[in-house]
Specification:
The protein has 288 residues and is of the alpha/beta class. The chain is 36% helix and 14% strand. The protein has helices at 2-7, 30-40, 55-72, 90-100, 120-133, 141-147, 163-169, 192-203, 208-214, 220-225, 250-255, and strands at 17-18, 44-47, 75-80, 107-111, 136-139, 173-175, 242-245, 260-265, 268-272.
């Protein structure tokens, strides 16, 4: 992965996460492997506390993640509370630690599906703390709609974190896809316009004012999660890295699930779609 990151650096920006897929403490030496990956050159410290064998080990992994990130000056991205269990509270601990260390802008909590199950008194208390820490959030609409609520009959939970409320309160939330044709989500193909389409339906953010901000969920907000916001955007001096969507306005491209017709990296085309032509025969000889 380190070699691939270097090989493709002029085509795409890759951040490598030292991610213990089964948890740091499900086997001996797991934490040490995460630290070794960081020393080798991983960009981000990852974790999955709800997969640990007991709550105590999940909490321990959160402490380790924050300590390792600060020690090696790395970003944090945790698969956090990706569960329907309303008692899962690892995001609370993660937020508290990065709040105390002033590390929130370099930290992302991914999934946080518990907020689709937690009661409002807990959720709104936490959202006030999220605003103070400035921690980032990522939702994966297609994956979590597919994976969560499996034990529900009806009503059946959507598995999505509180996207609408985060947007309204100014808490940074981005959409993503973390599964490309794998067992967790077999239909993943990396099409972010498809992710956006699913996400704004599930989160119910399609009013005229919300649509103006919806594209931010897969652009500017994501840049903040990657901590590249200072290099991202349409301002003089920043790299000309952008895609071109086939449409005239945010509403137009979202409604029509617009395709990408060009991708530019550092001012050079990575690809450019040729104009599409259609042959349509109409029989105009019959009147009504």
């Amino acid at each position: 992965m380190l070699e691939l990151r270097e090989e493709l650096k002029n085509t795409v920006e890759i951040q490598i996460v030292a991610f213990p897929q089964e948890g740091m403490y499900t086997y001996k030496g797991g934490r040490d492997l995460v630290e070794e990956a960081i020393k080798m050159g991983a960009d981000v410290v990852g974790g999955i506390p709800h997969y640990e064998p007991a709550r105590e080990f999940g909490e321990k992994s959160i402490h380790d993640i924050v300590e390792l990130a600060i020690k090696y000056d790395k970003l944090i991205d945790v698969h956090c509370d990706e569960t329907d269990d309303p008692q899962s509270r690892f995001v609370e601990l993660l937020n508290a630690l990065v709040l105390m260390e002033d590390y929130g802008t370099r930290t992302t909590a991914s999934h946080t599906c518990l907020f689709g199950s937690a009661d409002n008194s807990y959720a709104y208390r936490m959202m006030d703390l999220f605003k103070k820490s400035r921690m980032n959030f990522i939702a994966c609409p297609t994956e979590n709609a597919y994976l969560q609520g499996r034990q529900d009959t009806y009503p059946k939970r959507r598995g999505l974190t509180r996207v609408k409320e985060f947007m309204e309160l100014g808490i940074n939330i981005a959409f993503a896809q973390d599964s490309i044709n794998d067992p967790w989500y077999p239909m993943g193909n990396g099409n972010m316009m498809n992710i956006l389409d699913n996400g704004i339906h599930l989160a119910q953010v399609m009013s005229s004012e919300e649509v103006k901000k919806d594209l931010d969920l897969i652009t500017y907000n994501g840049a903040r999660c990657l901590y590249i916001q200072d290099r991202y955007g349409l301002e003089e001096g920043k790299d000309a890295n952008f895609i071109v969507l086939d449409g005239d306005s945010p509403f137009d491209v979202i409604r029509n699930r617009a395709g990408v017709i060009a991708s530019i990296r550092k001012g050079e085309y990575l690809f450019k779609q040729k104009p599409v032509e259609y042959d349509v025969e109409l029989d105009l000889g019959v009147g009504y």
